[in-house]
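Working notes for the structural subgroup meeting. M.R. asked for a predicted model of this chain before we commit to crystallization trials. I am recording the input and output together here so anyone reviewing the notebook later can reproduce the run.

Input as submitted:
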Amino acid sequence: MDTQETFGLDASQPAQPDRWHPKITPFRLLTLGTTIALGTAKAVETYKQVTYVSVTLEWVLGVVVFMMYVYFLQPLAIQRI
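Returned structure, recorded in token form:
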């Protein structure tokens, strides 16, 4: 028995790697969107040299987003797995 036959390989066709991509879910889109939005807002305020607004945005919105994820969205993401 040939080795290629043993492993189900066909020499006439090139081997293609299996591709794996994570599913795009509303939870992942929301995570990406909030990261982009908060990062952009912080970059704009830093560019304007208003550092206290940048730091305040980071602290206040960071806590709000964290609480939102932990208490409301994380259980939904776990149920879908």
